[in-house]
Write a structure and sequence with these properties.
The complex is a heterotrimer of chains A (about 210), B (about 350) and C (about 230). By secondary structure, chain A is α+β, with helices and mostly antiparallel strands. Chain A contains 3 helices and 5 strands. Helices cover about 35% and strands about 20% of the residues of chain A. The longest helix of chain A has about 50 residues. The N and C termini of chain A lie far apart (about 65 Å). Chain B has about 350 residues and is mostly helical. Chain B folds into 2 domains: about 150 residues, no CATH class; about 150 residues, no CATH class. Chain B has 18 helices and no strands. By secondary structure, chain C is mainly α. In chain C, strands 1-2 form a two-stranded antiparallel ribbon. Classes of the chains: A alpha+beta (about 210), B mainly alpha (about 350), C mainly alpha (about 230). Chains in contact: A-B, A-C, B-C. At the B-C interface, helix 7 and helix 8 of B face loops of C.
Amino acid sequence: MKVAIQNNAKVLALFAVACTALVSLVSLLTKDTIARQEQQQLLSTLHQVIAPERINNDLYQDCQFIKDEEYLGSNQSQTAYIARMDHVPVAVAITSVAPDGYNGNIQLLVAINVDGTLSGVRVLKHKETPGLGDKIETRKSEWVYNFNDKDIIDEKDLRWAVKKDGGMFDQFTGATITPRAVVNAVKNTMLYFNQHQKDIISNTTSCRGQHD
Amino acid sequence: MAFFIASSPHNHIQAETSALMRLVIMAAIPGVIAQWYFFGWGSIIQICLAITFAVLAEITFLAIRDKNIKAQITDFSAVLTGLLIGISVPSIAPWWITVIGSVFAIMVVKQLYGGLGFNLFNPAMAAYVMLLISFPVQMTSWQPANELLTHDISFFNHLWLILTGYTWEGFSVEQIRMNIDGITMATPLDTLKTDLTLGLTVFESISNPVFGENFSVGWEWVNAGFFLGGIFLIAKKAIDWVIPVSFLTALWLFSFIAFSLSPDSSASTMFHWLAGGTMLGAFFILTDPVSAATTRKGRVTYAALVALLVYIIRKFGGYPDAIAFAVLIANMAVPLIDQYTRPRTYGHKGAE
Amino acid sequence: MTERSEYKELSWQGLWKNNPGLVQLLGLCPLLAVTTTLTNAIGLGLATLLVLVCSNATISAIRQWVPKEVRIPIFVLIIAAFVTCVQLLMNAFTFGLYQSLGIFLPLIVTNCAIIGRAEAYASKNPVKPASFDGLMMGVGFALVLMTLGAIREILGQGTLFDGAELLLGEWASILRIEIFTSDTSFLLAILPPGAFIAMGFLIAAKNAIDSSIAAKQPKAEAKTIERVRVNFEG
């Protein structure tokens, strides 16, 4: 009996070692490709909001963590990517959160030019009602392109609201809460940028843990 | 043909199925008239469309299944399903919404499960939910009551609007729904929900014109109409009074608890009774003998469960009204409820 | 049974008679969740197929050395290892698809079709038929996934092969077919309830085909009945 148990344990251990070895091998072989793919994925999203012709720095490395619950909508750290042309800052892309969507948080990427105008906005992740609130995605509707080139004066800028509330952005048929939440979050992100522009641009440490 | 649909002692009139169905259809008339008075001809057109296509679908599928068409079509159950769909869809929804809904109700929800008496879900409500999640824009485009409209719409204009999406003068559904300030108006339930997310209190929100002087312009009278019809049905012993009483009491209780805990973010109890499809649900949908629970205790539980779900979904859910979702979920619980509330047969011991 | 008829039987079982998706109803969770587009369905189908063939082959090859008492943990280990490898490979080479399949890729481990075949067939048969069985079961599963994916994509979006570039690289975006365009898509088809309804119709269609085939061959039916009677009388 004891021998049988010992034998079984040995066989099991042997297979565990063999399987782990196989997985580690594959992991080792694919590690670099996966890292490169993730980097490319992030860059292609960033390039949607900041045209690649305008920049020549390594956007992936030129980033920093920022945190502001009031303006960026979350108590988690958000990331700011700084786009530069020959070391001169061109625009900053900031991830932020609209906490008051119809079904919870909406994660956004907001790119702002150094002159304060918007370069572009994309929705990274959301849980809005299909068919009503999901028109914030570029694949469903052109709505999010309305943000391009818009600017903001101050906190009391009345244009920064949906048309139903007297602002300049369309709401969707049957859904006002979603666009209202997105407009509000973009507005707050821009206000944050206007306050902290100097700090963000002058920062030289990379969020990847390395110095330039 | 006698068609016993519920296990009996509770089915007080031993009449034929068709007589029962006819009674229910007649009882819906006051509510329909109220709908016509406040929302115009659109709802009447929708009801006609829905009944026509429900009956056509019933005939087609009975023919495919080699059933006796004449015997089953004269039980009026397809007419009732069509009527309920016609009442529930927005009065200015495009015609194909109603047609898809009616055909789905009869074909998938009723006939594929084996016809009348075998359907697990309430056909009209399953069709309504299918329409709502598939075409949310059209299904939430309720027109405001006539007195809030800037354009008066005639019968002909309503027909044209349903068939083509525009009135004869060329106004779109969107323009019809706008008030004088050019703002699209939603139903009272929807308006309240939107306002609460804006940080307004209930008290501030109900100054909106859609709520009128009492609870909600038009809707309160539609609900009153269905309430009247429901009383008539109970008086005729066509439906069991336990279900609506249990449902309305439970809904009153849940909204009262919430209202006393946080009056700023919860609507009043009367608002829950008189907005949306509460009364239609209480007397005409929950009482469907096929998909409701069969025992007395089971019916109390079933109706209270629906009330709880209605309240939770109205308050926290992603869609404005909740009767249909709540009924479908409770339908699924019916076999379980029946299992645990089976009455003790005389001479046998109680549940083990 | 000759070798050829054995393979023929395996194909018949995997592709139709004992199809893991339509008859055994195994792996329903990924089946219903990811089939919103044809591309997703092909991606998950191929991943499952690969895992199924590899695990069947491995388990059959080692079947002499595995003690009966600990076979299940060992099967699970092997399957989990292959799933992790497939997941890593997809993460590296089809990154977009990896993201759109999300949690359902690692969930292949819990797909009962795989451990079911390991236990029922691969652990009792030589490597060659075991791999073939894995191939046929995998293809059968992938075909159901693809049918469901195609139906739901056409109804819900009016397209086919939307997002094929995620699976096959940039060139594949030309594969996308726009069947019809409409402002109001039939959302139900893409949502989970639509998956259940479409799956129900697929199973019904299979049963209808089976019974119409059975109706055409009354003689084979009669034979089995005769044998039952002999047993009872004896």
